[in-house]
Write a structure and sequence with these properties.
The complex is a heterodimer of chains A (315) and B (410).
Chain A lengths: L1 H32 L6 H19 L1 H28 L3 H23 L15 E5 L2 E4 H23 L1 H11 L1 H6 L4 H26 L6 H16 L4 H20 L4 H5 L10 H7 L2 H4 L3 H12 L11
Antiparallel strand pairs in A: 1-2
Chain B lengths: L1 H22 E8 L6 H20 L7 E8 L4 H13 L4 E4 L3 H17 L6 E4 L16 E3 L4 H13 L6 E7 L2 H17 L4 E8 L8 H10 L3 E4 L4 H13 L4 E4 L7 H8 L5 E5 L8 H14 L6 H17 L4 H8 L3 E3 L5 E4 L6 E2 L2 E8 L13 E9 L16
Parallel strand pairs in B: 1-2, 1-3, 3-4, 4-5, 6-7, 6-8, 8-9, 9-10
Antiparallel strand pairs in B: 10-14, 11-12, 12-13, 14-15
The chains are: A mainly alpha (315), B alpha/beta (410).
């Protein structure tokens, strides 16, 4: 039992950190432009595919640097020539633009790389078990993923809270006109932030690609959970996104590990009632409903605390 | 004069076109070509295209050229019906599908309704891989024919083999949460309980179909249960990722599977290092030892660059031809009648029969294990250097289970 708890905690933290890597970019972009970037998970997918292709040509480590740069550049182009132009037509237009972009990226990716999963391997350097707890190996690559996520989180916090750049960015979020009057190019700040947000998603893609599945529907399968994370954590709050990522990672992992059902807690229903919808619900285990648990959390938090865990405004 | 020749040159192909369109025999291939099932669906498509080319090279079926029409259903029953209707509107009278019994059930129902509403425009559904037993029991249809062994036939064979393996003490079941996965778990529980009551079922897991990207939490659970064997019906990415997570965690158990040989499966098995500890139950496999089948495998690999994962597709297309020739027609109604009780020498050797009662093809079944190859086994899988090795062969009479099908005949 202890073994299961320790391993599940590790797995949960790992998944949580990966979610954070993705949602941090989304959160920053949201708080800046007030628009949920539906294409964010698509940038993650682009990161994975670019990472795969560059790994083939140049090796994993150059890919880890180059792929996010490329995706960041694409993000900047999208902001400069897409979002900025639609901005004057309001948030709905921006939202629809990112929505359409997500589909376009998925189609383009499946045209180039096909629809089957790619054979994206863990680099040989990290392909060994890092340590063994209770006879379960823990792969070095997962430790690497964890380390990258933590480093990015710390770096992001320092840049935003402790540097001049962070100061301008934060000011531009709340008082763009004032920052503009002070002589800063607000448009360029927005473009840069959007680029960095996209690049963050791409880093997650490059490092998650070999561990999870790299295929053309990976964005669609991950997109919804990201929104759960940023809404749960509080729209626009970076620490909130961090906590929410960990909570959701852990909750989902532990939900899988639990075999409890209403029947096991309160005893089986009277057999004379026979198989019915009711007894189906009664016998469903927590493990079986694990995939919907995050969404249940989302609904719950919207009822109890609509601004999210650490959100500052009601929206 | 020149205008006339020009007119003829323009019109003649137009006139010729409908005639040649009727000459081709279109088979609608409805399977996932995107999403989590894509790797499996694309493999199947290449197989059917190869089979069509092969038949066409020998003059097709009764002089009709075969054309495979690929239709992407995203492993979604609703989408499948849309694709099926599209196919029928395009003049398709034969559809083939395999991946996903939920899709199979929807298609079978759709075809049955279509045929009762449109007499004279019947459609046959050739099922090459959807193995939910209900398709040939309570949900059976006259218009549905299945070439794969149903999951209870496979489980019967698998548990008969497990019965003789004394080292199995604790078994963990992990399956996809839909009709097929559920029938695997209930069959396993029932048949293991009857044949080896001493075996303990230490876990019985259902997970969402083709949605899980990381199986580590499930592997942690299997490990904690103390299981020595796992029985799984998982296919596609759900199998490959399950084994990948097992390899990462260093889980050492015996795996009893239906689809370890599917795309990505053998690579994942090789990573686990479980030499001859992953078993698979199929109607044929690369190193079966049958000369004709092995020659066929060689030619197939040379051209398609995949291992022949669907010997049943070969049986399906060859039997289609045999039935059409027997009926001397490609009319679906006549072909269906000719298929009933048709005996057929299967690709891997031995005689099979399309049972009239439920349209289930009965055939020899093999259990094989994946590991290092011996000298007489030439074929590896996915360039891993490992390949399938014969463990047990169950002949047709022993590989039968009874049916409860009460078929409505036209």
């Amino acid at each position: 039992m202890l073994e299961l708890i320790v391993i599940s905690t590790l797995n949960g933290v790992l998944f949580g950190m990966l979610l954070f890597l993705l949602s941090s970019g989304l959160t920053v972009i949201f708080s800046m432009m007030g628009v949920l970037n539906f294409a964010h998970a698509s940038f993650y997918m682009l990161g994975a595919f670019f990472g795969f292709q560059l790994t083939k040509w140049l090796g994993f480590w150059p890919a880890l640097v180059l792929a996010p740069l490329l995706v960041g550049a694409i993000g900047m182009v999208v902001e400069r020539y897409g979002l900025r132009n639609t901005h004057k037509h309001g948030h709905v237009a921006e939202l629809l633009l990112t929505f359409g972009l997500a589909f376009a990226i998925e189609e383009i990716v499946s045209m180039i790389w096909g629809k089957s999963p790619l054979d994206y391997r863990v680099p040989a350097l990290l392909d060994f078990p890092a340590f063994t707890i209770f006879s379960t190996n823990y792969p070095a690559y997962k430790i690497f993923m964890l380390a990258v996520s933590v480093i990015i989180f710390v770096a992001l916090l320092i840049v935003l809270k402790r540097t001049r750049v962070g100061l301008i960015v934060q000011a531009a979020l709340t008082h763009p006109h004032m920052v503009g009057h002070l002589g800063h190019n607000v448009g360029r700040v927005f473009m840069a932030v959007f680029g960095v947000g996209s690049a963050l998603a791409a880093i997650a893609g490059v490092i998650a690609g070999p561990a999870l599945v790299t295929q053309s529907d990976m964005a669609a399968s991950l997109g919804p959970i990201l929104f759960v994370v940023i809404v749960f954590g509080g729209l626009g709050s970076l620490p909130g996104a961090f906590i929410a990522s960990l909570v959701i990672g852990l909750v989902q992992t532990f939900a899988v590990a639990l075999d409890g059902s209403l029947a096991s807690a309160f005893g089986p229903l009277d057999p004379s009632t026979g198989p019915s919808v009711l007894s189906d619900i009664w016998n469903v285990t927590i493990a079986q409903v694990a995939p919907i648990v995050p969404y249940m959390l989302l609904v719950l938090i919207l009822i109890v605390r609509p601004m999210g865990l650490m959100g500052t405004r009601e929206s | 004069m020149r205008k006339l020749t020009l007119a003829i040159a323009v019109i003649a192909p137009m006139l010729g076109h409908p005639a040649s369109a009727e000459d081709t025999l279109k088979i609608g291939y409805i399977d996932p070509l995107s999403g989590g099932g894509a790797s499996v669906g694309e493999g199947g498509l290449k197989t059917f295209q190869y089979l069509a080319d092969e038949l066409n090279a020998k003059g097709g079926i009764l002089g009709h050229k075969i054309e495979i029409v690929p239709l992407d259903n995203k492993t979604n029953p609703q989408e499948s019906l849309v694709q099926a209707q599209k196919a029928i509107d395009a003049g398709v009278h034969y559809i083939t599908q395999g991946n996903g019994s939920s899709v199979g059930a929807a298609l079978s129902d759709f075809v049955t309704k279509n045929n009762s509403r449109n007499p004279g425009k019947e459609v046959l559904y050739f099922n090459y891989a959807a193995v939910d037993p209900s398709l040939t029991n309570e949900k059976c249809s006259y218009w549905h024919f299945r070439w794969d062994a149903s999951s209870d036939i496979k489980m019967e064979a698998l548990t008969s083999y497990m019965k003789g393996t004394a080292s199995i003490k604790k078994v963990y079941l992990i399956n996809q949460d839909y009709s097929f996965g559920q029938s695997v778990r209930t069959d396993a529980r029932k048949m293991l309980g009857a044949k080896r009551p001493d075996i303990q079922i230490v876990g019985d897991e259902l997970h969402p179909l083709l949605k899980v990207t990381d199986f580590s939490p499930y592997i942690a659970k299997i490990k904690a249960s103390g299981a020595d064997s796992v029985v799984t019906g998982n296919w596609g990415q759900d199998f490959a990722l399950l084994l990948k997570a097992a390899a990462d965690a260093g889980l050492k158990v015996n795996w009893y599977t239906y689809y370890a040989g599917g795309a990505g499966g053998p690579t994942a098995v090789k990573q686990t290092g479980l030499d001859h500890q992953v078993f698979q139950i199929t109607e044929g496999f690369a190193n079966s030892g049958n000369k004709a089948a092995m020659d066929y495998e060689k030619a197939f690999r040379a051209k398609v660059n995949l291992s022949l994962w669907y010997p049943r597709a070969v049986n399906e297309m060859r039997m289609f031809k045999a039935a059409a020739e027997k009926a001397n027609s490609i009319d679906p109604v006549k072909v269906a009648a000719a298929l009933e009780d048709l005996k057929f020498e299967v690709l891997d050797g031995g005689e099979g029969i399309m049972r009239k009662d439920d349209h289930q093809f009965l055939q020899p079944i093999y259990i094989s294990s994946l590991g290092k190859l011996t000298e007489s086994e030439p074929f590896d899988e996915e360039s891993t250097g490992w390949g399938w090795h014969l463990v047990s062969r169950i002949d047709t009479p022993q590989a039968m289970v009874s049916t409860t099908c009460k078929m409505a005949r036209p």
